[in-house]
């Protein structure tokens, strides 16, 4: 077992104005061996600094990093069984693809035959088996990216660190590379720690995701947990579209929105009675029906046909605007601008967060 453990890590920088920036502010993480782990968060939240600290390009002010039971945060970068793929994948332009992949192995003075075998394996792995003799400029951007990946994997690191590695690629290529990266991670069984600010990328690729804000993880969980059970308002807001509606705790396990009670699945026993909270509701968890008694009531303000679904804005009686995403078959009786509707939400899909 050689998972990556980060224990109470801190890193402070001095900004150019002389102010202290807590880039890493008490981070503890347990990353399992062989998993695809994502560090997700807005720009400036400390993702790159954490990755550089794991690689040894940055030294922590406090805290420890372990690979299995080996402490690695005191080791020089080249002694860590870790490799990094940066966003700019800087291949040597005068070397062939095969020579680029071989470069690190030749530095280690590995036998020629072993190098050739590893290079071919790595190029096959990234589906560039026939491209070893080409120069980087004869490849597309996505192919160059895969060469960079093959080069990083050739030394068989225990952990591969990837910092926004796909963000330079256009949308379609990026989608393809996400699938490729996932496959390569599975086939090699190497632990990937992948940094992104793109929540869709994180949800689609991660085994576990740590959602960062201001130098610290707000929540660590599977994509389903992060999406369906956000731990707080920041996580709910950062991941996907969501509505926040004022609510009050009205009984144990119950909140009330505009006088309508909902029994929530979430444990809210530590909240005091009458606590003013927000109910976080995903747009696709709402349905609109003909008006009925004792339901949330609203008016359809706008309708947008998006192809696969319809997005509507609904104004509740108290003025709150809700984003609603309806899937076919549509109830055309209520789907027109100006319609008075009953807003139905499954209480199991409401999350109680701070207001
Ligand atoms: P992210 O990768 O999530 O965008 P970074 O780790 O690059 O975030 O940066 C985290 C914070 O630390 C930011 O406020 C950034 O300006 C600051 N920072 C990063 N590196 C340095 C540095 N070498 N000197 C001063 N401040 C830095
Ligand atoms: Mg960064």
Automatic annotation (TrEMBL):
It comes from the Bacteria. Residues 4-239 form the ABC transporter domain. Keywords: ATP-binding, Cell membrane, Membrane, Nucleotide-binding, Translocase, Transport. PROSITE patterns: ABC_TRANSPORTER_1, ABC_TRANSPORTER_2. One of its GO terms (cellular component) is ATP-binding cassette (ABC) transporter complex. The complex is composed of two ATP-binding proteins (PotA), two transmembrane proteins (PotB and PotC) and a solute-binding protein (PotD). Belongs to the ABC transporter superfamily. Spermidine/putrescine importer (TC 3.A.1.11.1) family. PANTHER family: SPERMIDINE/PUTRESCINE IMPORT ATP-BINDING PROTEIN POTA, SPERMIDINE_PUTRESCINE IMPORT ATP-BINDING PROTEIN POTA. NCBIfam families: potA (TIGR01187). This is Spermidine/putrescine import ATP-binding protein PotA. The gene is potA.
């Amino acid at each position: 077992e050689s998972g990556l453990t980060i224990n109470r890590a801190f890193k402070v920088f001095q900004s150019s104005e002389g102010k202290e920036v807590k880039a890493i502010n008490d981070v503890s993480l347990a990353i399992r061996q062989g998993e695809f782990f994502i560090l997700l968060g807005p720009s400036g939240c400390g993702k790159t600094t954490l990755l550089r600290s794991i690689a040894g390009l940055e030294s922590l002010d406090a805290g420890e990093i372990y690979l299995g039971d080996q402490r690695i945060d005191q080791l020089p970068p080249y002694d860590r069984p870790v490799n990094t793929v940066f966003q700019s994948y800087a291949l040597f332009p005068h070397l062939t693809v095969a020579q680029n992949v071989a470069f690190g192995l030749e530095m280690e003075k590995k036998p020629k035959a072993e190098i050739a075998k590893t290079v071919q394996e790595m190029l096959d792995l990234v589906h560039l088996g026939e491209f070893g003799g080409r120069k980087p400029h004869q490849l597309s951007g996505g192919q160059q990216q895969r060469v960079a990946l093959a080069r990083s994997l050739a030394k068989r690191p225990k952990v591969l660190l990837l910092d926004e590695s796909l963000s330079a690629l256009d949308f379609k290529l990026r989608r393809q590379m996400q699938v490729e990266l996932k496959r390569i991670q599975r086939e090699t069984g190497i632990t990937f720690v992948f940094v992104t600010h793109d929540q869709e990328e994180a949800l689609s690729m991660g085994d576990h995701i740590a959602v960062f804000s201001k130098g610290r993880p707000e929540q660590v969980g599977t994509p389903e947990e992060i999406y369906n059970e956000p731990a707080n308002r920041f996580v709910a807001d950062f991941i996907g579209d969501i509505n926040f509606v004022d609510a009050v705790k009205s009984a144990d396990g119950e909140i009330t929105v505009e006088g309508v009670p909902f029994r929530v699945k979430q444990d809210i026993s530590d909240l005091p009675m009458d606590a003013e909270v927000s109910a976080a509701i995903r747009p696709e968890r709402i349905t609109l029906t003909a008006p009925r008694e004792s339901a949330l009531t609203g008016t359809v303000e706008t309708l947008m046909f998006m192809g696969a679904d319809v997005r509507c804005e609904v104004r509740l009686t108290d003025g709150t605007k809700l984003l609603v995403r309806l899937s076919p078959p549509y109830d055309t009786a209520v789907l027109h601008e100006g319609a008075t509707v009953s807003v139905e939400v499954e209480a199991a899909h409401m999350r109680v967060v701070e207001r």
